Sequence to fold (430 residues):
Amino acid sequence: MKLMNVGLLAVGLTAQAGLPLPALAQTLTKPEDVGLSSSKLALIHDAVKVQIEAGQIPGAIVLVARDGKLVYSEAQGAASPMSPAPIRTDNVFGAADLTKAAVSVAAMMLVEDGKLNLDDPISKYVPEFGGPRQVRELKPGSPPAPFRAIPGPGPASSEWGAPEYEMVPAAKPITLRMLLTHTSGIQIYGVDNGFPRRDAKDLLATFVPKMASLPLEFQPGSRWAYSNSMGIEIVGRIIEVASGMDLRRFLQQRLLGPLGMSHTDFGVKPSLTAQALPYAPGLSPAIAGAFKGYSASAGFWTTAGDYERFASMLANGGSLDGRQYLKPSTVEEMASNQIGPLVMEGYPSMGMPAEGVKFGLGFLVVTIPEAAGTMLPAGSFGWDGGGTRRFWAVPQDHIAIVSMVPAIGPAAAPLQRTIEAIVMNSITRK
Fold:
C-alpha cells in the first residue's frame, strides 16, 4: 500500500538554498570549504522528492557532514504517513536499533579503560550466565519456525505446523565479543525464542538475569543472526556492572553530554514532547526520566542533528571538536570484519545483499561495494533502526550521512542507495 502523496511540504532547506533552519540551531559550512560540491549535494533534494511523490515515503530528513562540519541539512515532506503536517529538522525520532550503535561504543570505551575484555565470558559480569547452557536445534524434517518480528510466544504455522527441537549442550561460553557481533545465539530476529516479556518495572539488573537459563538458537560463535531485542540488553547490563553507573548516566557522562547530544535520551525529554514523532498514531512516546527500565537495544529518542554528531565522531576516527572519545585503532577494530567467513543471514542489512557486507563490533561494514550495491567505499560502516533511521560513517573521506524517515520498514532502502551515490559523487577533493 502506498503512503499519502504529500508533495513538497519542505521546511528547513539546504545550505545551498541559504534559508534558515527551523527551531534547531545548526551551523552550516559551505560544502566547497571541505571539498564537496554544493550543486551535486543539492541533488539529494530531488532524490527525496521523487520518493515522496511516488508514495514510497512520507518525508525525510537528510544530513551530511565532512571533517565534523555539517554541510547539508534538509527536512522535506510530511512528518507522518497519516498526516500532511511538515517534517522538521528538529523533530525527535525513536532511534530504534540505532541505540545499539551508541551502546556498542560505550562498551568499547570500557574496553579501552581496561574494565571490560571482549573475550571474557559474560558470566564474569553477570554471574547468572555461568551455568550450563542448552542449544535448541531443529530436528531433521521439522518444519521451520514461523517468523516473529518481536520475541515471544506466537501461533504455529498453520501451513507447516509447530517446529520440533532437540536440546544439545552449548560448546563454549558466550563472550562480550559475541554479543557485539550478533554471533551469541541469544534471541535471533524472526524466531519465537520463548523469551520472557519485560515487566514495566524491570531494570536491566532485574531483566537480564532472566535470560541466563533460556536455550540458545545456535552454538555460540557458529553463525551470525541478528539479536534485535536481547543481545545488546545484556551488553547494557555489563556496562552498568563494569562502570558502577546505570546505563543512562554512563552514556550521558561519557558520550551524549560531551558530544553535545542534548536532545538524546532514553525517552523524549519533557521539553521536546511537541517535537516528537511517535512510532504510530496514538502511541505516545515514553518520557525521559519517568522510568529506569532503559532499553539498550532500542530505547533512544534523538534528532537527526544529534545523531550526526555521533556519526561524525566515528567518521573522524573517534574524535570531534578536539576531544577524543575512542582511539582511532578502536574505531578501526569496530569497523572491521569481526565475523570472518560467516554470512549475515536472515535480516535485511540496510537493504544490501549479504555478499557485500560483514559485521564489526556493533556496526555493519561494507566489504565489497559492488556486491553490496552501494557507492560507499569499502570500510564504510553504520547501522539501521527500524528500516528507516540510518547512519553511515565513511572514515577514508571523513564523511557522515544521517537520514530519518517517519515510517518503519524497508521502503527507504532505494533512497539510501541514491543518497550514498550522490554524496560520494559530490567529493571534489580527497
Observations:
- The domain at 10-97+250-425 is CATH 3.40.710.10 (Beta-lactamase).
